[in-house]
Amino acid sequence: MGLIDMADQGLVQRFATRITGTGAKTVMFAHGFGCDQAMWRYVAPAFERDFRVVLFDFVGAGSSDLSVYDPENYASLAGYADDVVALAKALGINDGIFVGHSVSGMIGILASKQAPELFGKLVLVGPSPRYINDADYTGGFTAEQIEELLDFLDSNHMGWSQAMAPVIMGNPDRPELGEELTNSFCRTDPEIAKRFARATFLSDNRSDLPGIDAEVLILQCRSDAIAPIEVGEHVHRAIAGSRLVILDATGHCPNLSAPEETIAAIKAFV
Question: Is 101 annotated in the active site?
Fold first, then answer.
C-alpha cells in the first residue's frame, strides 16, 4: 500500500481513521446512523491477522473533524459516499473489502459505483435502499410514520434517542445494548443528527442496486424493526449474483448483539 502521502494525512485525520492489521488486502468498516467506529469493536479485531483493517468516523460522528461539516454536502448519501472514495484512495485501497452497517450499506454501493476499483467485495449489514413502503415494495414504514419519526427527532433529540435506540437495537432481554446505542445517539450533535436522519430515512437507492461490479454479501437479521427481511430479500434480488445470509439474530445491530455470528458470516465470504 505504501506510506500515506503527506497531502492525504489531513484527510485521514479528518475521519479519525484507525488502521490496524498487516494483511495485503484491506477491510474498511463503516458505521451507521448515530453511531461511530466503536460499533465495530467486537468484529474488526477478528480480521487483523489476515487483513489491514480500517475504521473511521463519518464527518459529524465520533471523533471526526466537525469543523469541515458542510450541511449542503451531507444533505444526501452521495456526500458520505464521496468521503468513502476519498479516504479509500488516500489509503491506497484497491480491490478491498467494504463492510457497511445499515445506511452505510447504501453509502458503500454508491462509492463502489463511483470508483469500482476500490472494492472487490461489499458486505451489507442490515441494508435498506428505501425505508418507506411503495406500491410493490415493503420498506417497513409508511411515509407518515417516517415523517413522525423525523418530526420527533427535530423537536426532541434526547427523547427520540431514548425512545428509538432500544427499538432499533432490539434484544430487550439485554438492555445494556439499547443503552449503549442511546448514549451513542445522544453524543451526536443534534443538528447533524437531524440532517443525517433525513438523508437516511428519505433516501431511495433502489435504482442504484443493479450493475454493481463487486461481489456482494447481504447480512439480514431474522427480526429487524428497521430493515425487515423483505428488504434484505429485495436487495438480494436486485443485485445479480449477490448472496443473502439470514443471521439467527434479532435487532438492527448484529455487530453488537451477535458479533461472533457476524464475524463467521463475513469470514466465509472474504
Answer: no
